[in-house]
Amino acid sequence: MTYISHVITVKMTKDRSLPSSLAALVAELELRQPGVVTRKLLADAALEVGSNLGPSDIAERLVRRGWLFPLRTRDAWEFVPGSRAGHYASGDPWIELRALLEHNPKAPVAIAFESAIWEYGYTSHQPSTPVLAHRPAWRPPTSLSVRSASFDWRLATGEASGLPLWQPATTLAAIAHRPSAQGDWANADEWLPETFRATTPDDVLLEATDRGRATLVRLGHLAEWSGRTDIADTIDARVPNRRTVTYLGNRDDRTVWIKRWHLYDSLLSPR
Q: How distant, in Å, are the alpha carbons of 94, 95, 145 from that of 3?
């Protein structure tokens, strides 16, 4: 599967030749190889090469000639280097996120859930739509074209190609806390054990503590199912009263009863 791409149609010339007024600017962009071009970058490039053109004029002319590709994010473009075969977008599923972070580097977002698992290489099934997490009370712009979920993570994010990325422990705690936000359960036998192998009991507990009894119960079950009995036993000692039934999946689908955790599991295959 591939990420869904949203394409903006623009009128471009087939000829990517450059007049002298633009050649030095494009050479400067080729030197910098930016993932995303902003008005500020265009102004800096113009100053560097001694061009009198303003950022708006530069952008308009380079878009028409196929050297910039407009994005949904305002005042942001994708650079189309000469090495690319034609004036086509790169297909980067995170290009709009890169544009957002160029404008707002402190935006409280991170690659999350099955997208984080994909970025780590723990699954061979690429998500059909990128998944992004954001802090509560922050609203992601529609320009991102992602599936988003709110979660207040605690561990510092990692990095994937210059973008913030949930750590494996954060991903696991979030999955236990919000199972419905995680996709690709049909292939959990591939990605879930791999994700658990990449973390520690301390990190998992840091992310999962004080998120409710149900989160701990689900996380303990997921750990046991994945072969991380050390994490399962650690969580087991911390779970309060288990007389309340917990569900992993649809409450109306009581497929498998897990006695240890007092939990009905309708998402994972029995082991």
A: 10, 12, 10
Tokens of 152: 């207040």
| Cβ neighbours, 10 Å, residue 187 | 14
Q: Is the pLDDT of residue 55 over 80?
A: yes
Q: pTM higher than 0.85 for the full model?
A: yes
Q: How far apart are CA 129 and CA 1, in angstroms?
A: 9
- Residue 79: its pLDDT value, please? 95
Residue 83 has, within 13 A of its CA and on its CB side, a CA count of 6
Can you tell me the distance from the alpha carbon of 245 to that of 262, in angstroms, rounded to the nearest whole number? 6
What one-character-per-residue DSSP string does 48-114 give?
Answer: HHT----HHHHHHHHHHTTSEEE-SSTTEEEE--TTSSSS-----TTHHHHHHHHH-TT--EEE-HH
Beta bridge partners, 265, equal 248, 256
Domains recognised in the chain with CATH numbers: 20-94 (3.90.56.20), 107-265 (no CATH)
Question: How far is residue 221's CA from residue 215's CA, in Å, rounded to a whole number?
Answer: 10
Quick check: 86 pLDDT over 50?
A: yes
Task: For residue range 167-188, list pLDDT tens digits in order.
Answer: 999 999 999 999 999 999 999 9
Q: Please count the other Cβ atoms lying within 10 Å of the Cβ belonging to residue 60.
A: 14
Q: Work out whether strand 246-248 and strand 263-265 pair parallel, antiparallel, or are unpaired.
A: parallel
